[in-house]
Amino acid sequence: MDLIVNSLYSNKEVFLRELVSNASDALDKLRFLSVTDTSILEANSNLEIRIKADPDAGTLTIMDSGVGMTREELIETLGTIAHSGTAKFLKALKENQEGNNENNLIGQFGVGFYSAFLVADKVTVSTKSAKSDKQYVWEGEADTSSYTITEETDSDKLIPRGTSITLHLKDAHRFEFSDPAKIEELVKNYSQFISFPIYTWQEKTRSKKVDLESDGEDEVTAHDKPSSVEKYWDWELTNDTKPIWMRSPKEVTKEEYHGFYKRTFKEYMDPQAYTHFNAEGEIEFTSLLFIPPMAPLNTEEMWHSRKGDVRLHVKRVFISDQFNGELFPRYLSFMKGIVDSNDLPLNVSREILQQSRVVKMMRHRLVRKTFEMIEKIAKDEDTQAYPKFWDVFGRNLKLGCTEDPTNHKRIAPLLRFFSSKSEDTLTSLDDYVERMKENQKQIYFLAAESIRSAKNAPFVEELLNRDLEVLYLVDPIDEVALSSLGQYKDKKFVDISKEDLDLGGEDKTKDEEVDKEYQNLCDWLSKCLGEKVAKVEISKRRTSSPCVLVSAKFGWSANMEKIMKAQSFGDDSKAFSQLLRRRTLEINPHHSIIKGLNSMFHDETSSAEAKKLADLLFETANLSSGFTPDNPAEFGRRIYEMMGLALGAKQKAASTETSSLLEDPAVSEGKSSPVSSS
Predict the structure, then answer these.
(1) Lowest CB count within 10 Å: 479, 524, 598, 609, which one?
(2) CB–CB of 621/548 below 8 Å?
(3) Are strands 162-169 and 59-64 parallel, antiparallel or unpaired?
(4) What is the rounded CA–CA span in Å between residue 654 and residue 656?
(5) Which domains does the chain have, with CATH numbers?
(6) What residues bind ATP, as annotated (predicted)?
(7) Is 350 marked as binding a ligand?
(8) What backbone phi and psi angles, to 5 degrees, belong to 448?
């Protein structure tokens, strides 16, 4: 008893779920037996459960009109912990081959009854079996190892058939669980879909006319009498909501699905989509899934399953709504719905889903059905349907690229990006592939902070000149998502901001001549820049910029470097710094600045001016390529110095021009003639 009270159950509220489930099993057994023997229903034909909370007495009573128990059954089931009467009943059915796979019996472990001692220090069970004419009372206490069974002799306490369980609540739980409103809430949460009616004892109000004494002159009519509010107690049906998922999808209307979604998940907007299906095979379950219309307001909740989003039922009894990836992966945590199974692997407390092959199969089917819903939205005739979904849950699918490799083929067609040929509207990878050039074998992309930044980057110039489409990845997770995918329809994703970009069509003979002419400049620049670059080489990109700074093939792009530097727990170690410096400076030999620097290099290899220009060239390329300057202040100082030199040269030229004009005789005469004429 100690083990059950303190170890098996983590939530004390489940005691009512367990006791109501036992009552439901008793009613199901009676219904099954009545098929062959209708006389057992003569005492009471109503199959129902009633729950009465008494705040004054500090008790809670659960009554059912089920099959009841004999004295021997009381000893066998309640007198023995972990002996399941339901399990024994099912075994007998199987042996007699009279049962079928559609039974609705809930009990499995024979410990549900003892959950009553989570909140009660004493439990009294009064029961009368349909097979006996005697009624017995079982009584046990939490801190003892014994119990008593006596025959009920009080005529006022006799019942036609069934079981009545009275919990004498502990002082710590007396106020909470003797509250009728709390009991109603628990029934609606855990047992509202039980197939038998559940009534709870509730306080109600009604209007009552007040009698007034007549003075003999004016007769007081019923209409003139004032009314007052009268309080009274009565039974109220608590589980009037029917399990919509147990009905055939053909019989349920769209309005009914939407109404169920709003009531169950406390939403005020209709879902974007829903699916209702029955899974058959090694595991059988019914599910009703919804895609919500909007994301949670709390960003943290966007990436983690929240309480109440996916409700797990076993034979219509609510088990749990708190999961950690058992039913849906993290990137699909926005899903809402109901999952109901008859043979789900639960632990003894029926609170925790056990990890097993069956659970993995269930998860696989739920994920597959979710993707089918999303694909249906993407193909919807309403062209605004999928953009609406994408605005809300697009990042979730991108996260799926990194977390769920097994579903890459399902996720990739659903992704959307901006591109050089679709700057205003999102485009799919399928559309990109359709627009590809005949001999194009790669999908080009560039990660940047904005579309404007991407389309003005020096990396895209040559591709745009060749009419090659470039995907603009402006969301921080985009680059990681495409890198995780690797390829789409046998077309590899290529980051155009990295080295070894091969667009084809180059004149190799001409390139070799240029390489030979500028090789010494490359070596000199590499020596001047030192550890700032991994190497300097001639660029194959035909750009309007004198040079670009590209990342190593397996290094971080400029965009990724910014993202990683912004992480709270970023790595500032030496290895991290070395990784960041794996960049290549590609110079454009056709640009006037590079040509001029090459000439200066030949004439003044060791001049300080040449080295300053080399540093300024690198830092400008570093900035224009999207990287952050290591020393912004130093970079600014060099720009100011260059501006000063330019202004100084301009002033010197203007001064020289003025002096030349003054020394010109014709100019001198022109100035003196007006004086002489005067």
Answers:
(1) 609
(2) yes
(3) antiparallel
(4) 5
(5) 1-205 (3.30.565.10), 244-390 (3.30.230.80), 415-495 (3.40.50.11260), 511-551+572-643 (1.20.120.790)
(6) 18, 22, 64, 69, 84-85, 108-113, 163, 350
(7) yes
(8) -150, 175
Q: Which distant-in-sequence residues (6+ apart) come within 8 Å of 610 by Cβ?
A: 597, 600, 601, 604
Residue 572 annotated as lining a ligand binding site: no
Measure Cα distances from 342 to 141, 346, 420, 448 in Å: 33, 11, 53, 51
Question: C-alpha distances in angstroms, 172 versus 16, 86, 120, 177, 654?
Answer: 17, 32, 9, 10, 96
* CB-neighbour burial class of residue 471 (10 A; exposed 0-12, middle 13-18, buried 19+): buried
| Residue 648 marked as a ligand binder | no
Burial class of residue 254, CB neighbours in 10 A (0-12, 13-18, 19+): exposed
Dist CA 517 CA 589 (whole Å): 9
Which whole-number Å values give the CA distances from 168 to 53, 78, 165, 203, in the listed order? 11, 17, 10, 21
Transcribe 267-320 into DSSP letters. -SS--SEEEEEEE-SSS-EEEEEEE-SS--SSHHHHTS--TTSEEEEETTEEEE
CA nearest to 446, candidates 626, 669, 279: 626
pLDDT tens digits, one per residue of 274-297: 999 998 887 889 999 999 998 876
Residue type for position 539:
S
The model's pLDDT over 163-182, given as tens digits with 9 standing for 90+, comes to: 999 999 999 999 999 999 99
CA distance 452 to 503: 23
Tens-place pLDDT, residues 95-114:
554 444 444 444 444 567 88
Q: How far apart (Å, rounded) are the C-alpha atoms in residues 107 and 191?
A: 14
Residue 420, helix vs strand vs coil: coil
110 labeled binding residue: yes
Does 18 belong to an annotated binding site? yes
Strand ranges of the sheet holding 198-209, from the earlier edge strand across to the other edge: 147-151, 135-141, 120-128, 162-169, 59-64, 49-54, 198-209, 227-237
Tokens of 320: 């749990």
CA angle 550, 554, 560 (to 5 degrees): 65
pLDDT tens-digit profile of 48-98? 999 999 999 999 999 999 999 999 988 888 866 645 445 554 455 455 544
325 is in an annotated binding site: no
Q: What is the pLDDT of residues 102-152, one digit of tens each?
A: 444 444 445 678 889 889 999 999 999 988 889 999 999 887 778 899 999
83: CB partners within 8 A, 6+ apart: 76, 77, 110
Distance CA 18, CA 377 (A): 41
Residue 17 marked ligand-binding: no
What's the rounded Cα separation, in Å, for the pair 629 and 442?
31
Q: Is 64 annotated as a binding residue?
A: yes
Q: What is the mean pLDDT of the chain?
A: 82
Q: How many CB atoms lie within 10 A of CB 451?
A: 15
Residue 22 is assigned to a ligand binding site? yes
Query: 114 is written with which tokens?
Result: 């003892």
